[in-house]
Amino acid sequence: MSRVYNFSAGPAVLPEEVLKEAAAEMLDYNGTGMSVMEMSHRSKAYQEIIDTAEADLRELMNIPDHYKVLFLQGGASQQFAMIPMNLMKHGEADYIVTGQWAKKAYQEAQKYGKANKIASSEDKTFSYIPDVSDLPISENADYVYICENNTIYGTKYKELPNTKGKLLVSDVSSCFLSEPVDVTRYGVIYGGVQKNIGPAGVVIVIIREDLITDDVLEGTPTMLKYKTHADAGSLYNTPPAYGIYICGKVFQWLKKQGGLAEMKKYNEKKAKILYDYLDESRLFKGTVEKKDRSLMNVPFVTGDKELDAKFVKESRAAGLENLKGHRTVGGMRASIYNAMPIKGVEALTAFMRKFEEENL
Ligand SMILES: *Cc1c(COP(=O)(O)O)cnc(C)c1O
Fold it and tell me: Mind listing the pLDDT tens digit for each residue in 192-221?
């Protein structure tokens, strides 16, 4: 068996320890004589799995009691609709468009009400985060929406927007659990787990309790109401049971690493290795404004498409996988989520140095 360093943007690398534990429990979970995949979601054993997962997530993120944690399906993209359906009580919301995912959310919201684009960085291919300290927040906006870490472009909000008292809704898919956050600053935090937490198929929504009501857009399907899932403890119907179990294992792994403050330190140290090299390289360069750099997704280019393609091909042969950039940006992108060890980033920069010497 040989494992590669996997720089995929998602689904992405998971902690090896977690995969090994899951493998060991595959045929017989904790003396039940069955796999978690084969287990009733109404069983005592499964209830314990989901309860422990929620408790560990609450501990990691310091989630106050007046926030609910929901484990849902439909990916992050389904939230693009669920959020306006549930939260646009006055039929209006403000969107800050900093990349493709924010843009998709903004476009989807237009189906359900008045969505205002109050800031954007599309003028420079989303290579920066706009100044969000004094935006024209709409008087009737029910919330202000952001995508906090832009997976494709590699930017991250270092300061949350001044929402002037409005509710903040944030897509944290690609920075979930990468550093501590103050949950109380948000109305809703959500993310698909396949970037930084677990297997595809689970989306976690952390939502302030008072926002969960029956007052939703007329015609909203039962399955798309937060209240349906909140009232049933995420067990209204069959949840993505196995995926939640793996997420739970990742939460335990994170606790063992020392929690999110330690994770942040580790991620900063890891990203610095790559960014420092990019800043000194004569061949490669980063594509985004330095002040807005993401700790998780690092796009870079040589400026020559053929050389980029050569790099991707040769890096792959060297055991560095999935470095090809998103099709809309080109070049390369290294996603260096929580589970990517520093050794992986060291291997990448060593390879880049060698490639630079050979190709400059
Ligand atoms: C990947 C991603 C999405 C889309 O996730 P799906 O689960 O595939 O719908 C949305 N937002 C961000 C920030 C992402 O990285």
Answer: 999 999 999 999 999 999 999 999 999 999
How much is the mean pLDDT over the chain? 97
Rounded to the nearest angstrom, the distance between the alpha carbon of 101 and the centre of ligand 1 is 7
How many CA within 13 A on the CB side of residue 281?
Answer: 25
243 closest CA partner among 44, 73, 63, 103: 73
Ligand 1 centroid to residue 11 C-alpha, Å: 10
351: phi > 0 → left, psi -120 to 50 → alpha, else beta; which?
alpha
Residues with CB under 6 A from ligand 1: 10, 75-77, 101, 147, 151, 171, 173-174, 192, 195
Sign of CA dihedral 231, 235, 238, 240: positive
- Residue with token string 């720089």: 7
CA dist 84 and 78 (Å) reads 11
Q: Is 253 considered catalytic here?
A: no
Q: Are 207 and 226 spatial neighbours (Cβ–Cβ below 8 Å)?
A: yes
8 A C-beta contact, residue 147 and residue 170:
yes
Say if strands 155-156 and 149-150 run parallel, antiparallel, or are unpaired.
antiparallel
- Does the bond joining 130 to the residue before it have cis omega, within 30 degrees of 0? no
In the predicted structure, residue 329 carries a pLDDT above the cut 90: no
